[in-house]
Amino acid sequence: MSFTNVYYKRATATPKACFVCYKPTTTVLATASTIDFIYVCTTHLSDPGFATQLGESRDGIGASAVKKIGLSAEEIAKVKEEWEEKQRLKKEKAEQKKDKDAVKDEGTGKDKSQTKDSANTPSPSTPSAPTPTAATTPSHERYSLHRDFFAMRLAEHRKRRQTKQMQELAPRLPGAPRNPIP
Hints:
Blueprint: E1 7-17, E2 24-30, E3 37-39, H1 42-45, E4 51-53, H2 63-69, H3 73-108, H4 110-120, H5 122-128, H6 130-135, E5 142-145, H7 147-169
Antiparallel strand pairs: 1-2, 1-5, 2-3, 4-5
């Protein structure tokens, strides 16, 4: 049950002691599944002897991956714009289709249109709400710990796991004899 050496920088409300210098800090490095987390000062994050920052996680492609692929910033921006344009056109088509359906329903009768209108009013408001929240979701900076610090974290987790296993196993083991040997 080991974890990868990719930590995400997050902020907390309550300060705790820094892993390195024991000063109070609200910055936490945590794995994606929060199996491991470390309170660390922001000054230690810039220290290459402690951790190195990985590429941007917002686009899903790290900076090193972009360099390997050989894409320039202009090419990436162009592809993003094209994708956003396609998404906008899809939304417009969906809205036009809804408008056509609404006009069609109005022609059939007032009772049906009233029930359709009451049912359609909540649905447009719900899809529009998640879109801005998804766009404004903050992306966390990614870090990789120095191999020695990461080895310390792995050793600590291994020790915890072994201690838990011993505590589960100990009651099942037989006790030592208490009677004196004749």
